[in-house]
Specification:
heterodimer; A: about 110 residues; mainly beta; 11 strands; B: about 110 residues; globular
């Protein structure tokens, strides 16, 4: 089945220790997104890629970076995680040429910072 | 600015009907999505409205009034598994989704 896969499902890192979250998709969608979601809050868009074109949201901290080496893969790097970065990180894809195309989410990676 | 307003929490009884309202203000409009999100899981797509009126999909229906900046999600024949958060997300003129914090729906037996 075509899908969006995030690894790992749960990630524990230490304060200040770099961490990378990964996302892959078999849907062949041209847009990929990274969201951060904290408990009982709206998902917050960090980055999105239209093909290889990178779009950084204005309020995304510099501590967060992203890479999309090819259509199928996308990575989220947190250079120096702080306690406030503990959250669920959601990867999603969509077909940009269809405004009605819904976002397809991966299962998310729950990040804990100790 | 862009804004979404949904009730924080609602409670309903198994087998009943519940309506979750959403009002929005966006810069432009390219449709509105509803997503379901179970605790600790990712959102899953429920419905999309771009024209005024009601879209029905089994037990779930979604309504849109563009002139009023208003949508609702109607859930019929509620089941315990419908306990989840329901997120309203209109799409603005840049085709970006503007997310609400969601309505937590609690179903009681």
């Amino acid at each position: 089945d075509a899908m969006v896969i995030q690894n790992p499902r749960y990630q524990v890192t230490q304060f200040g220790k770099p961490v990378t979250l990964s996302c892959s998709q078999t849907l062949n969608h041209n847009v990929m997104y990274w969201y951060q979601q904290k408990s009982s809050q709206a998902p917050k868009l960090l980055f999105h890629y239209y093909d290889k074109d990178f779009n950084n949201e204005a309020d995304t901290p510099d501590n967060f970076q992203s890479r999309r080496p090819n259509t199928s893969f996308c990575f989220l790097d947190i250079r120096s995680p702080g306690l406030g970065d503990a959250a669920m990180y959601l990867c999603a894809t969509s077909h940009a040429d269809l405004s009605s195309s819904p976002l397809h989410f991966g299962n998310g990676t729950r990040l804990t910072v100790t | 600015g862009q804004n979404i307003d949904q009730p924080t929490e609602m409670t309903a009884t198994e087998g009943a009907i519940v309506q979750i309202n959403c009002t929005y203000q966006t810069s432009g409009f390219n449709g509105l999505f509803w997503y379901q999100q179970h605790a600790g899981e990712a959102p899953t797509f429920l419905s999309y409205n771009v024209l005024d009126g009601l879209e029905e999909k089994g037990r779930f229906s979604s309504f849109l009034s563009r002139s009023k900046g208003y949508s609702y999600l109607l859930l019929k024949e509620l089941q315990m598994k419908d306990s989840a958060s329901y997120l309203c997300a209109p799409m603005d003129s840049n085709y970006q989704l503007i997310w609400g914090a969601g309505t937590k729906l609690i179903i009681k037996p």
